[in-house]
Design brief:
Low-confidence stretches: 1-13
Number of strands: 0
Helix content: over 70%
Structural class: mainly alpha
Distance between the termini: 25 Å
Number of domains: 1
Oligomer: single chain
Length: 125
């Protein structure tokens, strides 16, 4: 009997810590999204690319959904990331060195978001 209580407590602790990981990454995405959206709107008003404003919206939505423990955050970020790849290719073509600053940070965020999939799937149960 003691063994099952210990396991339930450990399971609860694991779920609590993994939940906070989703909240942390969600908040990080929201903060990045605010910066990208604000800067993107300013850039668009100056006649520049709308990419940053749109990517900011994608990050804001991603963060909102992740912080709430919803898989929708993963899907929204996947769309945002694919949009980033398309924009980067449109902007600099196949110049891979020019791709690096456009693609590396979004890909790191993608990895963090993808690592949350087991947590988010477990939370749905």
């Amino acid at each position: 009997m003691t063994h099952s209580i210990y396991n339930e407590g450990t399971h609860f602790e694991e779920r609590r810590h993994t939940h906070w990981a989703a909240v942390f990454i969600g908040v990080l995405c929201v903060l990045l999204g605010i910066v990208l959206f604000a800067g993107g709107v300013w850039l668009a008003m100056l006649g520049g690319s709308w990419y940053y404003a749109l990517a900011g919206i994608g990050l804001l939505l991603t963060g909102w959904f992740l912080a709430r423990g919803l898989m929708s955050g993963v899907y929204v970020y996947l769309v945002t990331w694919v949009g980033t790849l398309i924009w980067a290719y449109w902007e600099v073509g196949t110049d891979w060195w020019a791709q690096v600053p456009r693609v590396v940070a979004p890909t790191v965020i993608l990895i963090l978001v993808l690592l949350l999939i087991p947590v988010l799937r477990h939370r749905r149960r």
